[in-house]
Known about the structure:
With 187 residues, the chain is mainly α. It has one domain (27-181). The protein is built from seven helices and two strands; from the N terminus they run ββααααααα. The chain has a two-stranded antiparallel ribbon. It starts with 49 loop residues before the first strand and ends in an 18-residue tail after the last helix. The model is unreliable at 130-137 (pLDDT under 50). Keywords: Metal-binding, Zinc, Zinc-finger. This is MYND-type domain-containing protein. GO terms for molecular function: zinc ion binding. Residues 34-76 form the MYND-type domain.
Amino acid sequence: RGLYCMRHFEAGDQILAGQAFTVLCPARLWLSRCCVCFLACEDTASGALQPCSKCKAVAFCSQKCADADRWHAWECQAIPDAVRICGQLTHNLADQGSHEKGDLLTELLIVARALRVMHSFPSAFTQRCEDASVVECLALDLRDMAQSEAADAEVTSEQHNFAKLLIRLDCCKVLLPPVFHESPACP
Length: 187
């Protein structure tokens, strides 16, 4: 893969524009930066951000940004439990130094968003994959990885644990598409 130019471009020239698949402010910055435009608290007109009135875990620089966050409506009720569970897990793994609570939570939410978009717009992904079964199998594969007692030869223990954690975080059944909840996977 690559992008190759057929002419010379000057510094600052726009070469390519596109919309990101999903954008997520790192969880460790949720209360110090707007979760939509990433404006720092000190750079706002009031010098403060407005925390979400429900979850209190994320903040916005304005009502305009709060209204523009299409993801938070789904994620809001799951975030407090997700923060708690990721905190417990990373505390237990602290001696390994492999994860921080915010990094793990950010990764989990990005995957949940990707799965929600893939399930909502499967044709966009099956055209890229050239295999319609890919999208259909995602829910089953994730549930199977999460429900099995241990990782098998094709699934690493890290993938297995990530799948289990993602399903566990979504016991409210709001982060993932409904098809992921067709069988009881929450512990």
